[in-house]
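Look over this one:
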Amino acid sequence: MAGGSLRDFKRRISSIKNTQQITKAMKMVAAAKLRKAQERAESSRPYTETLQSTMARVAAYSGDVSHPLLAVREDVVKAGYIVISSDRGMCGAYNTNIIKAANEKMAFDEQERKIVPSIVAVGKKARDFYRKRVGLDAEYINLGDNVAYADAREIAGFVMDAYEQEELDEVYVVYSKFINAIRQVPTVVKILPIETEEDQSEQEQAQEANWDYIFEPSAEELMVTILPKYVANLIYHAMMEGKASEMGAKMTAMDNATKNAKELIESLTLVMNKARQAAITDELLDIVGGSEALKKGGK
């Protein structure tokens, strides 16, 4: 257990210490990025909620507006799934959970509703997973850590064109909703056809107070203008929630990796010390044994 084994232990401990330094640095980087991503995701929620309520309010006063994005198909043949993942790994089960949620939704739609799935992958992990399994209609990768509205608008334009041309009959977005650095919830949201339910409380309150909204331009024109922006905003919000979730998962994963490295170093150090003590004990026994043999030989 002497020289060579001890050198092996020291080499392994040194290697793990280097890895620990890397995971610690990655945790700090992820924590810094998480603060920015979390602020952006949380600040976008009020805007998204207000836009949804505005949509419902305008829809309540716009009458029967005819628009391709509002068309509900009776026979749904093909559905599109926008799966938002990360471009890189090292973020625990983040991508696995998103892909699992997407697969469960697709499996249900295939078995229960006989719908053919179509994938729009956002991020390399989703692209790599579905490329050989389901096939891709489109892929958007290397979008960076700062989510850009232009990217969301491009994705929205692709799915809206496919929906208007009846290449897709429904569109869903699958992403991870950010709760905190430890918890992220995989979420599936239907974005097409746009479902505009009338806000009953708003209507009742308006009737009781004799409110009469004045729209300029008309409610119908506003509805047609807001619809594409509404779809783009839903995708943009999902991408920001996903980015915050990714950074939270990465920070947690790197923290766990750093702690595991510390435990492994302590364990290997303990084993190495035991091996060193055993080697020293063997050498002492050899010395004592040799000394006893010399004494007996001298007599």
Observations:
- Residues 219-298 form the longest helix (80 residues).
